[in-house]
Design goal:
Distance between the termini: 41 Å
Largest sheet: 8 strands, parallel
Radius of gyration: 21 Å
Helix content: 25-40%
Strand order of the largest sheet: 7-2-1-13-12-11-10-9
Structural class: alpha/beta
Strand content: 5-15%
Amino acid sequence: MTSRKTSPRTLLPVAGLSALALLAGPGLLAPAGARPAGGAGALEQERAAQAPAAERPVTQLRTPVVVGHRGASGYRPEHTLASYRLAVQLGADYIEPDLVPTKDGVLVARHENEISGTTDVAEHPEFADRRTTKTIDGREVTGWFTEDFTLRELRTLRAVERLPQVRPDNTRYDGRFRVPTFTEVLRLARKASRETGRRIGVAPETKHPTYFDSIGLSLEEPMLRELKRFGLDEKRSKVLIQSFETTNLKQIDRLTEAPVEQLVDATGAPYDLVAAGKDTTYADLVTPAGLAKVARYADWLGPNKDVVLPRDASGALTGPSDVVDDAHAAGLRVVVFTVRDENQFMATDFRTGTDPDAKGDVFAEVQAFLDAGVDGVFADHPDSAVYARDTWVAGR
C-alpha cells in the first residue's frame, strides 16, 4: 500500500455524505460527474474537485460527531468497559481507548502507562517492588507501569476514579471494573452497533509511541492487526487513529486506509520531533503550511480546544482562531478535546458560580465550538455534548 504522499486518498466524511456533497455545500447533492454551474464559486469547486485529496477543502459536517472521551468518564472510572458502554447509551458516536502495552505485548486501555492514579495497584503488596521511576518523553515519572506487568497480572487490579475530588460520585465504582484490552473494546463497539442500530466508532490513541518503540513494545503493529481483524482498516471505517506524535502517524498511514487524526496540544511539541532534535512545535503544525503537511498523512486534526477558542489571561474567550478554517481548507476535519461539564475546565464565559467542581454551561460551550466550525468534540459527559449538538443542528 502506498501513502497519501504518492497516492492521495479521498477524505470521506463520517456522517455518511459524499465528499462531492460536502464540496457542493449544505443541502446540495450533485450527481456523479456533474459539472458545477457557472460563476466564480463554481469554478473554485471544480478546481477543488480536481486537486489532490489532501488539498481539497471540506466544509463542516452537517452533524458533527461526539467522541466519548475515555468512554463516559464523567460518570464512570475512565477506560473501563462500563464507561465505554455508558458512552454508547448516552449517544456517543465514537468511544476512545488510550492504548498502552503490557509486558507480554497486549494492548490495554489506560490513560497512561503509569497506573497508580487509575488502578488500585498501590493496595497490592505483591507488586510493591514494581514501583519505580522512569523517564517518559523526557520527564521523570514514578509509579507502576503497564509494561512491567503481564496481562494476567494486570487483570488482578481494578480501576479507580482518576479525579476523586472533582467527581466523588464516581468513586462508588472503585474496585468494580478491571482493565480492558483493546480487543474487548472493539468487541464492545461491534456488539453495541448491532444492538443500537448505530455504527459505533472507535478512536484509539497510541500513547508515547517513541518511548514504547525504544523498549521493544511497539504499539502500531498490534493495534493495526486488531483493527484489521475487526474489519476496521478501510477508509470508510468508523475509526480515528490518534497520536500526539507525527512519525508513527506517517507510518500508520502507509500501513492502513483507516482514518488518521493528528492530535495537537495548546503548548509544546510532538515528542518524536523533540527526540530527533527538531524544533517543530504544535503551533507550527497549525499554520496553513503546517496543516498542508499534516493533510498528507492525516484525515483529521484533533486540537486542544484552546487552540480553536483561545483564552486571555483572565480565562475569557478572545474569539475563534483561524485554525478550523485553515484545516478545512487543507482538507482536514477538526475534532477538539476535551469538553467537560465542570467549571474548572471551561472558559470563564461558561462558568456558573464560583465552585470549580460545579456544573457550568456546557451546552453553550459546545455550541460555541460548533459555531466555530468544528466537526466534532471529545466529551467526558457525552449526553451533554449530544444534547448540545442536536439542539444546534436542529436550529441551523
